[in-house]
Amino acid sequence: MHFKTVAIVGRYQDSGLDAPIRSLANTLVSTGCSVLLEATTAQNAGITEFPIGDYAQIGEHADLAIVMGGDGTMIGAARELAHSKVPLIGINHGRLGFITDIPLNDANDALLSVLKGEYDVEERSMLEGRVVRDGQVLYSGVALNDVVINRAGRGGMIELRVELDGVFMYRQRSDGLIISTPTGSTAYALAASGPLLHPSLKAFLLVPVAPQTLSNRPIVLPDTGTLNLTITALGRVESGGSVHFDMQTWSDCQQGDRIDVRRSQDTIRFIHPKGYSFFSTLRQKLGWNHIPLPNDENE
């Protein structure tokens, strides 16, 4: 891939991004690339000296999008650019950074290596889903991390009937259910005691949130089918239920609604500098390489 036009997307709520964005943009210009700043990023950073465009224009003109922020910023950009197939590279300006894997201090050197062709391409799957009531689609969305169904209020649990391609799997009473991609297995699913999935797997991960019975355990399924999740009961009917597609929420679910989830036809391509390893990321972010010493608990 040749990156002639490179877009820059920044974390919108961050202050102090103007300096690193300008530095990054000037590095790109010095190599002969054209720069296109995402409109909200440019407005919040107060940068006007480079061309500005919305996501539609980025999808049409950019050969690469650099996302400077946290994983949430990357997820938002991925959702916007998935259909246009623009590859993404992430520079971590957030906290954890599972998918924005380049440290800010290494950004310029890493970017120069990528522009020279020294990079690896990784493809990640996405989910698409819809909320159906009486045969009518009320809401639809896509997700890079997960689709989450949960109770909207504080009282009671939500009860779901779970099917795969129309074949009954189980009923579950819980606070909610996470349907995760392998990418999302390091996000909410991990916090709810789900397993880690390698990003290359073609699979769904179902993780119950605070289930009523211990027999409701996480399960990994092939992503070739469609999950059908019907809300059969709500702890309090008036409280309703919610469905979250990453950062997009539908909060008007009612008893009898069905949520269909399947693998999206769109995928996300991540660009990594040479030497990237998913396992290295886990060691750094989750402390896999840490072996407690006998006296650690007393220190």
TrEMBL record:
Which Gene Ontology terms describe the biological processes this protein takes part in?
NAD+ metabolic process; NADP+ biosynthetic process
Listed GO MF terms: ATP binding; metal ion binding; NAD binding; NAD+ kinase activity
Q: EC class of this enzyme?
A: transferase
**What is the protein name given in its UniProt record?**
NAD kinase
Q: Which organism is it from?
A: Alcaligenes aquatilis
What is this protein's function? Involved in the regulation of the intracellular balance of NAD and NADP, and is a key enzyme in the biosynthesis of NADP. Catalyzes specifically the phosphorylation on 2'-hydroxyl of the adenosine moiety of NAD to yield NADP.
GO terms under cellular component: cytoplasm
List the catalytic activities from the record. Answer: NAD(+) + ATP = ADP + NADP(+) + H(+)
Protein family? Belongs to the NAD kinase family.
Q: Which cofactor does it need?
A: a divalent metal cation
Supply the EC number(s). Answer: 2.7.1.23
Per the record, the domain of life is: Bacteria
* Compartment list: Cytoplasm
Sorted keywords for this record are: ATP-binding, Cytoplasm, Kinase, NAD, NADP, Nucleotide-binding, Transferase
Q: Where does NAD(+) bind?
A: D71, G72, N145, D146, R173, D175, A210, Q248
Task: Indicate the residues that form the catalytic site.
Answer: D71 (proton acceptor)
Q: Which Pfam families match?
A: NAD_kinase, NAD_kinase_C
